[in-house]
Write a structure and sequence with these properties.
There is one protein chain. The chain has about 1000 residues and is of the alpha+beta class. Helices cover about 45% and strands about 20% of the residues. The chain has 26 helices and 34 strands. Strands 1, 2, 4, 5, 6, 9, 10 and 12 form an 8-stranded mixed β-sheet that branches. Strands 22-24-23-25-26-27 form a 6-stranded mixed β-sheet, sandwiched between helices. A 5-stranded mixed β-sheet has the order 16-18-19-21-20. A hairpin with a 2-residue loop joins β9 and β10. α6 runs parallel beside α8 and α7 packs antiparallel against α8. About 5% of the residues have low confidence.
Length: about 1000
């Protein structure tokens, strides 16, 4: 605290010293009085520097003596006046409020030469004549207000040549309302060279100070633009620029020297308008430096207040209408009003900085230097504004202190940041080791519960605890798939953790370059047909083999291709291979978005993802894993990229220098086409048990291996080599499971899956896809082709048999669930309804055989719809649904007799598919809950008509209606009535369909359904 106070006191003392030393001529008059009784005699020695023409000037009050007119004519008015001084006791304002007077001085010089005057603000308008010639003026001196024009504290120089070693100086002065008028500052005299040098020095100092502030502010603004994080830099830059502009508007007015045509009133608007901008920037700067000390509401109020000040004083004042003050009092009131709204904001900022000192916040001493300097200079500005005291050279002190304070603050923060970074670097190294250990432990810990969930889900799917209903099975399958996806992510994390600790194991063998073509072809086969990206493989199959781990190699190639596809919207991706110095060079080139240069060095870091406009996906491990695998296999990987043009990844694999044979315990499926020629007679059929497996692969060698292995397990096997034969077969034959190769000629495995799924869902016909790329790749998982499972080639037969058994168990569980559901559906047929109907038919059979047959037909129609499970879960034509409705109502009419009236209004030309059993339950609900409750019965109306682009279905009854409470439950879907809720849920699944319910207790109920479409014959 003491050091902070010492800084404040030191800065105040510095300003005081500079203020008094730089303006001592205003306070002290130790120079000899050069003017006596209107005459000044100057010798050569005195002309070496500017001379103040202080003393007793001749003065002619209340008159403007024209140039060339003899002064003897005004001897009766002549008096002497002290210069510099206020003239108010000598002059009297005229009727318009103007005060005028004429100053006269005769200067005797040693030699005839060019001489000059440096004039510092003669208020409020003046014109200078030397030897009868006008040499300069500021404002327009006049005795008439309409011709008068004021100056704006303008400083200027005038020059003239002496005649007979004399200069006769006449200065006309007019004042309108200023409290201090006349020649109130010393006028300096000297040779032309001395005055010019003196004036240029003052202008240069002012210009240097202004430009220095503006440049400093621009530097801070540029620093903010580069990082856009530290807003205090932005507002400090704006503040220093505003301060620099203000300094160019005052003193020597360097800005207006560049633009001399700006009138004095506009100059004043510039001066007064830039101050609120500077205060805005200063307040926001301090706010962002120390936000904990401010309230947003206070800042908003200050900004609004300063905005009003800027508009009123800098642009247009609706109160004064930008007119000059008409009296000294009005001028004073305006000054007090301006200071009254700006000074509190300055004091608020000073108070904030005082709180900073008290709370000992960061960098306070350096900020204190700057703000103390600003406050001192502000106080001097107020004094200058109010009483016109000069403040020369104090702006230099302000400029130097601002630079010193903020340079020190930036250096301090840089040092603090460096020390923090150094400490953080050590800490991050430790945390990085902890992170690797955490990932490893977390991955291991997650595998156990995930495997538990997978096994439980698998057990439920297979019906180990009893069959599930179809919706339940679908949900369990979803749980299994999502958990499996999460398990794959855990595997990636575990792999990444292992590679960081060097625990990744590889098994390099001789691998043909044909594997590259297979991966490319398979990825191409699953890409969308409308994709604007072409995937090209440029690989010569005659190239020598590589010595690598096949599965790991595929993983690297897939990761690079998946990355290229994700970042390429249109263009091409080319995979090329060539030999270079005992290494196979594999390139993956794309024409995608490219990688920014600053990201190239970090692109292989784990979890790092480049910031692009697209949504980030995945964990950012793909390229990191690829790099580690390549290095583990004694290769290298590099990347080149041009932003906006594309990227090229290049990695190397060592060539196989000798044959290596790996004896594997289990048979495996060939990963890529064998060179051996084998032609089978297809379809190949092996008869076995009642479980029928359909194998689809265009490679006959693979068909032979799979069929033989499956036949040994006792399955019935049917094998074909194309998708078209497979589709034809499943249409006409029952199949329990399909094995499909993803990449086939003619029809790909992807397309085959989609066609099969049009006829069978995932529970009715399980499908296993055999793929060369990663079995849990994002590319496959996002395709949603309808496969139940994926196996990566080369396929382990033991794993294949386990997958088949599991899927067959799931299918059997689905069949069992259907049987359970069928039993439930039988139970849904109301026994009383059946008994009553049968009794009615039996009674009718004795008297009316025709109606009996019709009744039996309607009952058969009713039972067929109610007990057909597949019919319940599909769409039917509206004609079939109306037939069921009519059958049901016929039966009810037969039971109720005259108590039930039925009306139909059906457009039979409408062709529309609607959910099965969607209208009949609603009609049954209307009969049971509406008509049957009324002793006298009622009417049922069923209407199907077109309404614009929609089909309008209306079911109306005039029964007892629905109480308000139960109606709200139905509308809010909180009711347990199956007859209403099931149809409602079915119609809600239809796009653009609407379902409305209207009912009034005692009057009846209306259901209106609007469905899109309905083309007719």
């Amino acid at each position: 605290m003491k050091k902070n106070l010492l800084i404040i006191v030191s800065i105040i003392m510095l300003f005081v010293i500079v203020f008094f030393l730089g303006n001592r001529h205003y306070f002290l008059n130790d120079d000899p009085r050069m003017v006596k009784n209107g005459i000044a005699s100057i010798d050569s020695e005195q002309l070496k520097k500017p001379i103040k023409l202080d003393g007793d000037w001749s003065f002619y009050p209340n008159v403007l003596i024209p140039a060339g007119e003899k002064l003897d004519n005004y001897n009766n008015r002549r008096t002497t006046i002290e210069v510099p001084s206020d003239w108010h006791e000598y002059v009297e304002p005229n009727d318009e409020g103007l005060s005028v007077g004429t100053y006269h001085l005769k200067v005797k010089v040693p030699i005839d030469a060019e001489y000059g005057l440096y004039i510092r603000a003669i208020r409020q308008a003046n014109r200078v004549f030397i030897n009868g010639v006008e040499v300069g003026a500021k404002g327009k001196p006049s005795t008439v207000l309409s011709e008068y024009g004021s100056e704006n504290d303008d400083k200027y120089t005038v020059f003239a040549r002496s005649i007979n070693r004399e200069l006769d100086i006449i200065i006309q002065v007019t004042n309108y309302y200023s409290s201090r008028a006349g020649i109130i500052f010393p006028i300096q005299f000297g040779t032309k060279e001395v005055i010019q040098t003196h004036y240029r020095w003052k202008v240069s100092v002012d210009a240097l100070i202004s430009i220095g502030h503006i440049v400093l502010g621009a530097i801070y603004i540029l620093a903010y633009v580069q990082n856009r994080k530290r807003k205090e830099e932005l507002f400090f830059g704006l503040f220093t620029i505003a301060l620099g502009l203000y300094m160019s508007f005052i003193n020597q007015k360097t800005f207006f020297l560049l633009f001399p045509d700006i009138p004095p009133l506009k100059q004043l608007h510039f001066q007064l308008g830039v101050i609120p901008i500077a205060l805005m920037s200063l307040t926001l700067f301090i706010n962002f430096m120390y936000p904990q000390l401010h309230k947003k509401r206070t800042i908003y109020i200050i900004m609004i207040l300063l905005g009003i000040v800027f508009v009123f004083y800098g642009i247009y004042n609706p109160i004064t209408k930008n007119l000059r003050a008409t009296s000294e009092e009005e001028s004073l009131y305006r000054s007090i009003a301006y200071i009254g709204v700006t000074a509190p904001i300055i004091f608020y900022n000073v108070w904030t900085l005082f709180r900073v000192m008290v709370n000992r916040l960061e960098g306070i001493r350096y900020v204190l230097i700057v703000v103390s300097a600003i406050c001192c200079y502000t106080i001097l500005l107020i004094l200058n504004f109010l009483v016109g005291i000069p403040i020369d050279y104090t702006e230099i002190v302000l400029f130097l202190l601002v630079i010193l304070g903020f340079s020190s603050l930036l250096n301090y923060r840089s040092n603090v940041a460096f020390m923090k970074i150094e400490a953080l670097s050590d800490e991050l190294l430790k945390h990085n080791e902890m992170k690797d250990e955490f990932l490893l432990k977390t991955s291991h810990e997650l595998r156990t519960p995930l495997n538990g969930i997978l096994n439980l889900a698998k057990s439920l799917m297979e019906g180990a605890q009893g069959p599930l209903k179809r919706p339940q099975q679908e949900q369990v399958i979803l749980i299994h798939n999502v958990t499996q996806r999460l398990g794959y992510l855990v595997e990636d994390l575990l792999f990444s953790s292992n590679q960081m600790t060097g625990e990744v194991k590889v098994s390099p063998v001789e691998v043909s370059v044909a594997v590259i073509n297979e991966v490319v072809e398979e990825i191409r086969s699953v890409m969308p047909k409308d994709s604007q990206v072409r995937l090209i493989a440029d690989v010569d199959l005659e190239l020598p083999s590589m010595f690598t781990d096949e599965l790991r190699f595929k993983q690297v190639l897939y990761n690079l291709l998946h990355n290229a596809i994700k970042h390429t919207k249109s263009g091409e991706i080319i995979v090329a291979a060539y030999v270079n110095q005992q290494h196979m060079m594999i390139e993956v080139r794309d024409t995608g978005s490219g990688i920014p240069p600053q990201d190239l060095d970090r692109i292989f870091n784990a979890f790092y993802q480049v910031n692009h406009q697209y949504k980030k996906e995945g964990l950012g491990l793909g390229l990191s894993i690829a790099k580690n695998i390549v290095e583990k296999l004694n290769g290298e990987i590099h990347v080149k990229s041009v932003l906006g043009e594309g990227t090229t990844f290049t990695f190397t694999m060592p060539l196989a220098v000798q044959k290596q044979v790996i004896n594997e315990q289990s048979a495996t499926l060939a990963p890529y086409p064998s060179t051996e020629v084998l032609k089978l007679n297809l379809p190949l059929i092996y008869k076995g048990n009642d479980k029928k497996i359909l194998v689809v692969d265009d490679n006959h060698v693979n068909i032979k291996v799979l069929a033989d292995a499956l036949a040994l397990k006792g399955y019935t096997v049917i094998a074909v080599d194309n998708g078209f034969d497979a589709v034809d077969y499943v249409k006409t034959n029952q199949v329990d499971c399909m094995l499909i190769d993803l990449m086939m000629n003619g029809m790909s495995g992807y397309e085959l899956c989609k066609r099969v799924r049009k006829h069978y869902d995932m529970l009715e016909l399980p499908i296993i896809v055999l793929t060369a790329i990663m079995k849990h790749s994002d590319l496959l998982l996002t395709l949603q082709v309808g496969a139940n499972d994926y196996l990566q080639k080369p396929v382990s037969m033991d794993e294949l048999f386990i997958r088949i058994e599991s899927l067959l168990a799931v299918k059997q569980s689905s069949i069992d669930a259907i049987e359970v559901e069928m039993k439930y559906l039988f139970s849904q047929v109301t026994p009383h309804f059946v008994y009553n109907t049968l009794n009615t038919i039996i009674g009718m059979s004795y008297t009316d055989m025709d109606n009996t047959r019709e009744a039996l037909y309607c009952l058969a129609t009713y039972f067929r719809a109610k007990l057909n499970v597949h019919y319940r879960n599909s769409f039917v034509s509206i004609e079939e649904e109306i037939e069921l409705v009519k059958a049901y109502l016929y039966i009810e009419k037969m039971r109720f007799g005259d108590r039930l009236t039925i009306k139909y209004d059906i457009d039979e030309s409408i062709e529309l598919m609607i959910p099965a059993l969607s209208l009949q339950p609603l009609v049954e609900n209307a009969v049971f809950h509406g008509i049957s409750k009324k002793p006298e019965g009622g009417t049922i109306e069923v209407s199907v008509q077109r309404e614009g682009q929609f089909v309008r279905i209306k079911i109306y009854d005039n029964g007892v209606g629905i109480p308000e409470g139960k109606l709200q439950q139905l509308l809010n879907e909180e009711s347990s009535r199956i007859g209403y809720m099931n149809p409602l849920k079915k119609f809600k699944l239809m796009k653009n369909a609407s379902f409305r319910l209207y009912s009034e207790e005692g009057k009846g109920t209306t259901i209106v359904i609007l469905l899109p479409g309905g083309g007719g014959a």
